[in-house]
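Predict fold of RidA family protein; 128 aa.
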Amino acid sequence: MSQKEILNTDKAPAAIGPYNQAIKADKTLYVSGQIPLIPETMELITTGVADEAHQVLKNVEAILKNAGYGFEDVVKTSIFLSSMDYFATVNEVYASYFKDNQPARECVAVKTLPKEVNVEISVIAWKA
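Predicted 3D structure, encoded as tokens:
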């Protein structure tokens, strides 16, 4: 029988709306979009898009680890940017986390993101 499990950790920012950090359904983990909030203080990183991208991916990593997954288990990412001008910078940071066996992904520019951030990333992970 299929199981659905809600997962949250204090090592990543608390949800800022009516959602959870992650949902595990059978072997698949769905991680909600993460923005550059510091988990301990819920303050935003505002020192540049590279720093934002690193914080976002640290938050994703904390949620993955909490569920027993790692970046190597990610099969799909969705990257949202406030401007495609940030693509190269975010791509460079992203590549430092996804070194081998990179997942499928899309990267789109959107008009605005929560709290006026420049980067938001969600992932889907799978483990046999």
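The first helix runs from residue 49 to 66.
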